[in-house]
Specification:
The structure holds two protein chains of two kinds. Helices cover 75% and strands 0% of the residues of chain A. Chain A contains twelve helices and no strands. Chain A starts with a helix and ends in a 6-residue tail after the last helix. Chain B is built from 13 helices and no strands. In chain B, helix 6 (104-122) runs antiparallel to helix 7 and helix 11 packs parallel to helix 12. Chain B is elongated, with a radius of gyration of 25 Å. Chain B starts with a helix and ends with a helix. The chains are: A mainly alpha, B mainly alpha. Chain B: Belongs to the binding-protein-dependent transport system permease family. Chain B: It holds the Pfam family OppC_N.
């Protein structure tokens, strides 16, 4: 296991470096001068050169990258152009909200999706299968930002049961006055992992139940309930790893839902950064989200290797 | 001698019905896939024939006929926040929505399949160079990468389509590489090489036919994702710019109307959903008909 873990971790390092290069290059990909957002258009050439030197933009690109990376590794992602506050602080605050939203959505999506997929996999070809597979198909096909709007229309505009936007009063608690803001965005976001997990679990269950050992267990007189436990144990590792990946996708991909619900997370931050041309904030947020995704993938791989040693080949 | 002259008819190899005909007939027998395909064709026709089908110009607004409900005389599907006919805008919207959502996939297929097949067939250093680069882009969640690229490049149809293509190339390349690596290990490739065939000939003659199918099926499954992402970018304000008609952008501009006229505000999403479901059903059916396992 240690050798496997070491190998996987070593494999991740070049990917992480590559990701940081891509994030660094984003700013240079942007049309126009990165300083255009802070400098007045009639700034003198002298002032422009001064600012350029101040931000290190006069140095060769590899040097800029090296300095940027060293600062980033120390937790310094520069300052937001719009607010002047450190980017790291802005991201940390937003990341907590996104973690809450994505975490709840993943658990919800996994619970519903795994149940549906399990039922469909056991009852293949029946109407149960058709209905649950249909729901799963809708889950992976629905434009989730639209589903969010529809839920707002039904539960906020028409029924007036739940708030349409925001994350509730300041502070966090398990109080309903806070939780009610979480319901609609979390349900909306959970639809994607629900569909994907249902489809994955369905085909996994179908594969496992087709194996000889399952009929052997039944033939030797084991109760159906006990046979199913064996099926679950065989399906669980892969299903859980899919869930882990989905959490990563939701953390990085919640921008549309956070925009629909004005949920103050990283996606919302990203949206703000894009439209205020706040490049340091944009770059920092993308870097952090991508790194979290890389780490979650690594964690899922290690966990899967620990549960199922066959994967460590 | 005359017996010899009437030579026996040359033995002709009877051509087997062929793989693709089998796939075709299996698809034709599946009513769900046929229906999905019919919807896709209808949507494409709607986009092509928009000027003939639409009752009004998509950009002709009216300040006094804003946000009319569905069923208003002259506005069968209501009107939007600038008093433009929804039906006409939805029909015209098919043009940019399909263009933005569909085109990145074949373009990414071209680049991704080429990269993956080259990496898979060449192996060694070439494989490592290509695939480690692909891994870096694959390490971004797709929504994040699309938003990051089009967010930095700025809004616009071209930038959005470029971003989506970049998102899909690594995904297709990974599938292409793994399929090609599998085929390359088979004996008949060694046999071809031993009989002196050049690498290019082997790839074109022996590899391509066996790997394109699975890669193609995977690519078709991306169209639905691409549709949702493309309209999503427009919804965020990163894709098509107003006043162009595009379903995602229409959802965005109608967001403020959900308190006044919710049904009309939700309409563009219905079309995105129909398109996306149809492509997914088609892709699933194709996968089954071609017997490609995910």
């Amino acid at each position: 296991m240690m050798a496997y873990a070491a190998k996987r971790i070593l494999q991740v390092v070049p990917v992480a470096v590559g990701v940081s290069v891509v994030c660094f290059m984003l700013i240079h990909l942007a049309p126009g001068d990165p300083l255009a957002a802070i400098l007045p258009s009639d700034a003198s050439a002298d002032l422009q050169a001064q600012m350029r030197a101040l931000y290190g933009l006069d140095r060769p690109l590899p040097v800029q990258y090296g300095l940027w990376l060293i600062r980033a590794l120390h937790g310094d992602l520069g300052q937001s152009i719009a607010t002047g506050r450190p980017v790291t602080g802005e991201i940390a605050g937003a990341a907590v909200n996104t973690f809450i939203l994505a975490g709840v959505a993943t658990v919800l999506g996994f619970t519903v999706g795994a149940t549906l997929g399990f039922l469909a996999g056991l009852a293949r070809g029946t109407w149960v299968d058709r209905i649950t597979s249909g729901i799963a198909m809708l889950g992976v096909s629905v434009p989730h930002y639209w589903l969010g709007l529809v839920l707002v229309i039904v539960f906020s505009v028409e029924l007036n049961w739940l708030p349409a936007t925001g994350a509730g009063p300041g502070g966090r608690s398990l109080d309903w006055s806070y939780l009610r803001f979480l319901v609609l965005p979390a349900v909306t976001l959970s639809v994607i992992p629900m569909g994907i997990i249902a489809r994955t679990v369905r085909s996994l269950v179908a594969d496992v139940t087709a194996q000889d050992f399952v009929s052997a267990l039944g033939a030797k007189g084991m109760l159906r309930r006990q046979v199913l436990r064996h099926v679950v144990r065989n399906v669980a590792p892969t299903a859980l790893s899919v869930m882990g990946l989905q959490l990563g996708y939701l953390l990085g991909g919640s921008i549309l839902i956070e925009t629909v619900f004005s949920w103050p997370g990283t996606g919302f931050l990203l949206n703000t950064a894009i439209f205020t041309r706040d490049l340091p904030l944009l770059q920092g947020t993308i870097l952090v989200l991508a790194m979290i995704f890389v780490l979650i993938n690594l964690g899922v791989d290690l966990l899967q290797g620990a549960i199922d040693p066959r994967i460590q080949r | 001698m005359s017996v010899l002259a009437a030579s026996p008819p040359a033995l002709r190899a009877e051509r087997s019905p062929g793989y693709w005909r089998g796939v075709g007939s299996r698809i034709a027998r599946d009513p769900v896939v046929v229906a999905a395909l019919a919807v896709i064709v209808a949507l494409v026709l709607m986009a092509l024939l928009a000027p003939e089908l639409a009752p009004m110009a998509p950009d002709k607004g009216s300040m006094i006929r804003r946000l009319k409900p569905i069923g208003t005389p002259g506005y069968p599907l209501g009107s939007d926040e600038l008093g433009r006919d929804m039906l006409s805008r939805l029909i015209y919207g098919a043009r940019l929505s399909l263009l933005m959502g569909v085109v990145p996939v074949p373009v990414a297929f071209l680049f991704g399949a080429t990269l993956g097949i080259v990496a898979g067939y060449a192996g060694g250093l070439v494989n490592a160079l290509i695939m480690r680069t692909v891994d870096v882009f694959y390490a971004f969640p797709s929504v994040l990468l699309a938003v990051a690229l089009s967010g930095t490049l700025g809004s616009g149809l071209g930038n959005a389509m470029f971003s989506l293509t970049v998102v899909f190339i690594p995904q297709i390349a990974r599938v292409a590489e793994s399929v090609t690596t599998g085929v390359r290990k088979l004996d008949y490739i060694d046999a071809a090489r031993a009989s002196g065939a050049r690498p290019l000939t082997i790839v074109l003659e022996h590899v391509l036919g066996n790997v394109l199918g699975p890669i193609f099926v995977f690519a078709t499954s991306l169209v639905s994702v691409s549709m949702i992402l493309a309209s999503g970018l427009s919804f965020l304000g990163l894709g098509v710019r107003p006043p162009d008609a595009e379903w995602g952008l229409m959802l965005n501009t109608l967001r403020t109307a959900i308190y006044v006229n919710p049904a009309v505000a939700a309409l563009p999403g219905v079309l995105i959903l129909i398109t996306s479901v149809s492509f997914n059903l088609f892709s699933d059916g194709l996968r089954g008909a071609m017997d490609v396992r995910s």
